Amino acid sequence: MLCNRMKQFREYNKLDCKLVAEVLGISENEYKDFENNKALPTIDIITTLSKFYKVTVDEFYAVIVIRIMACRNHDSAVKAVCSCNISNGGCCCHVEKICIRA
Is the pLDDT score of 6 beyond 80? Predict the structure, then answer.
């Protein structure tokens, strides 16, 4: 989820909520609401954060391939995928079969 990614970036950079809120020009409580999934940040907030952390905006909405496992015949595999969706503020994980040979 977006809130998790915001927290991950902040903690990875060893920053506190107050400092990040100051960078964004918002209150610490407003920022905490984003991390606690009580409010949804605007694209301007995400853009500012991406510049601050020196990452792309896409990295806040990452699709993460969790695992790929070959099936018995090695012609196909299953892929577990977790993707975060800003439109509904949720996270969706699913397993799909993929072809690994042409």
Answer: yes
